[in-house]
Amino acid sequence: MSARTALLIIDMVSPFDFPRGPALRRAALAMAPRLAGLKHRIKRAGGLCVYANDNFADWASDFDALVQLARQSPGGEVLEAVAPEHDDLHVLKPRHSAFHQTALESVLDAEKIDRVLVSGVATESCVLATALDARIRELEVAVISDCVASSSEARRANTLSVLRYGEIPVVSAARAMTAPAR
Question: For the whole model, what pTM was predicted?
Answer without folding.
Answer: 0.95
